Amino acid sequence: MFKTEIGKDLIKAKALLEASELVAIPTETVYGLAGNGLNAVSIAKIYEAKNRPQFNPLILHVSSISQMEKLVKEVPDPIHKLLLAFSPGPITYLLPKSDLIPDLVTAGSHRVAIRIPDHPLTLELLNMLDFPLAAPSANPSGYVSPVEASHVLDGLNGKIPYILDGGPCKVGLESTIVGYENNSIVVHRLGAIDEQQLKEVSGCSVEFKLSHQSPTAPGQMKSHYTTHKPIIVGDLDDLIDRYSSKKIAILSFQRSFNRVFVQRVISPSGNLIEAASNLFKAMRELDASTAEIILAEVFPNEGIGRAINDRLQRAAHVN
Ligand code: TXA
Ligand code: MG
């Protein structure tokens, strides 16, 4: 057991990471649970603290394109174009891994997931270290990702020594994950960088492999982002009628509702980017309320709205 502290002390974070301990780090997407990505002991601690199955591989975080190039065998040209356009930013690349990276990071795959996070504190920390940081989202496996330091504490109190507090995450949804296969950009997880941006910048066609069954990537499984209370996604007017006998929590885009027990309107002005940044916090708050059931609406399926719908659909899945 640790006494988990929260602060902005980069020297302390560096010392812990160099001693193979874990530190939660802020990124623009969600908080990560970081350890030395080249050190098997640190990586094993990540799986243990999250209670994460070891067949679910981890993302490496680096501070620059040149750092990334040292950890992979090659960067295909279209991926290089994406890197130039979106670094640092909310996108992760699946690339052939170099032998420096322990198999535990990639769960045995020859490809490593790697990204350059856009957060000043974490970029500064990465520049102080001579290894990449392996970091899954800093939540117990299966729960909603944390978008504030206090959310990390809620899930991992006592399990890690330090949380580096970088304030609320500005994007609020996990990174878009892409690979390059058969001359196409392949999207493995939806995020803030959308299909149109990928197509325009890479000059390639864009395909989707959002398989919810892939055993090598449980982050793609349904029920990955789930709350403790059941979430039902659909037309809110219908759902409110159907569940009128229950204490209802509502998660909506723009509209507010009368006579519901508790609600979160995540972008009254109808801005999908703002909605994404508020989604996980709202899910956590509704989950912590004394409502019996969470009813959520289907968001416009465009841009980051697709990623919002993806997370809600997975949260709604019942095992
Ligand atoms: O925005 C993000 O990506 C955040 C922040 C902390 O960087 N990280 C994050 O990590 O969401 P995590 O572990 O919660 O989700 C990573 C996803 C998982 O679905 C995992 O299965 C997949 O990436 N993944 C990681 N390495 C992979 C690999 N080598 N091949 C295929 N999928 C991989
Ligand atoms: Mg996660």
Topology record:
Layout: E1 5-7, H1 10-18, E2 23-25, E3 32-36, H2 40-50, E4 59-61, H3 65-71, H4 77-86, E5 91-96, H5 103-106, E6 111-115, H6 120-128, E7 133-134, H7 149-156, E8 162-164, E9 176-181, E10 184-189, H8 195-202, E11 205-208, E12 231-234, H9 236-242, E13 248-252, E14 262-265, H10 272-288, E15 293-297, H11 304-316
Parallel strand pairs: 1-8, 2-8, 4-6, 5-9, 10-11, 12-15, 13-14, 13-15
Antiparallel strand pairs: 2-3, 3-7, 4-7, 5-6, 9-10
The chain binds threonylcarbamoyladenylate (TXA) and magnesium ion (MG).
Features:
319 residues, alpha/beta, 11-stranded mixed β-sheet, 4-stranded parallel β-sheet, 15 strands, 20% strand, binds threonylcarbamoyladenylate, binds magnesium ion
Describe this structure in words.
The structure is a single chain. The chain has 319 residues and is an alpha/beta fold. Helices cover 32% and strands 20% of the residues. The protein has helices at 10-18, 40-50, 65-71, 77-86, 103-106, 120-128, 149-156, 195-202, 236-242, 272-288, 304-316, and strands at 5-7, 23-25, 32-36, 59-61, 91-96, 111-115, 133-134, 162-164, 176-181, 184-189, 205-208, 231-234, 248-252, 262-265, 293-297. The protein has an 11-stranded mixed sheet, sandwiched between helices. Helix 1 crosses helix 6 and helix 10 (272-288) packs parallel to helix 11 (304-316). It starts with a strand and ends with a helix. Residues 213-220 have low confidence and may be disordered.
